[in-house]
Design brief:
The chain has helices at about 35-40, 65-75, 90-100, 125-130, 140-150, 155-160, 180-185, 185-190, 220-225, 240-245, 245-260, and strands at about 5-10, 20, 45-50, 85-90, 110, 165-170, 170-175, 205-210, 230-235. It is of the alpha/beta class.
């Protein structure tokens, strides 16, 4: 197991599980900062960078059991026995893996705009954009943005990706392990965890109304793996449900956490 970098918010309360917020592909724990600040007065939160992302170590294996194992090892090191995984996109699949493999630690589950199914996205445009950046000649971040724009016209997506670009004494580099991520993209898009032992606890699947990641045809698979699931829709938002409507997302999350 890898020793993940993490951020901590709030304080642990006796008898209350911690929340573990899990980011998506090409992201890092800092993506959850705004939501964590909204919740920290009522909850203890652990927000890791998953392997090959952010400040966490790189490793050639990028399977969901491996990522879930890293997270569980981190929480065990911190003395956290019960936790509620809250995952977005790829992090949602890590959260589902934790619930299915380790239900004794997981009283509830929250998944943001993701289903336990295989997706065919290869993100070839994103990897092409990363390769287009001439790191050795880069003088400022705006140059990287212009180089990526040929492949990614959406400025908001470019800014999300450029969070991974850092400069140190040796120059500019990506925090992501792009080689491993590109080689593993089919594994990341899949979800082959068996559901012969469904997760028995409450689960919230919160989809964006403008997103096609959670579709009606996915519901039987969701119910097979998570029979107590609630599937809710946040209006007016796409895949980035918590970033596009943080107030609405937090409200739905808190209502689910408070439900008996």
């Amino acid at each position: 197991m890898l020793e993940l970098h993490y951020r901590e918010y709030g304080v642990a309360r006796p008898g209350q599980p911690s929340l573990c917020l899990l980011h998506g592909l090409f992201g890092s724990g800092i993506n959850w900062h705004g939501i964590a600040r909204r919740l920290e007065s009522d909850w203890h939160l652990i927000v890791p960078d998953l392997r090959n992302h952010g400040r966490s170590p790189h490793h050639p294996v990028m399977t969901y059991p491996a990522m879930a194992g890293d997270v569980l090892a981190l929480l065990e090191r911190l003395g956290i026995g019960a936790f509620i995984p809250v995952g977005h996109s790829m992090g949602g699949k890590v959260a589902m893996t934790l619930a299915l493999h380790h239900p004794e630690h997981v009283p509830r589950l929250v998944v943001a705009d993701m289903a336990p199914v295989r997706y065919a996205h290869d993100f070839s445009d994103v990897f092409a954009a990363f390769r287009a950046v001439q790191l050795e000649h880069l003088r400022r971040r705006s140059e990287a943005d212009a180089q990526m724009a040929r492949h990614i016209p959406d400025a908001a997506v470019r800014q999300y990706l450029l969070q991974n670009l850092v400069q140190d004494g040796e120059g500019w580099h990506w925090r992501l392990d792009l080689e491993v991520l590109e080689r593993s993209i089919d594994i990341i898009g899949s979800f082959d965890e068996p559901c012969h032992l469904p997760f028995p606890g409450p689960a919230l699947f919160l989809r964006g109304a403008l997103s096609d990641y959670v579709r009606p045809e996915h519901e039987p698979r969701i119910r097979a793996c998570f029979p107590a699931a609630r599937i809710e829709t946040l209006p007016g938002v796409g895949h980035w449900v918590y970033a596009e409507d943080p107030e609405g997302f937090t409200s739905r999350l808190q209502a689910f956490l408070a439900a008996s």
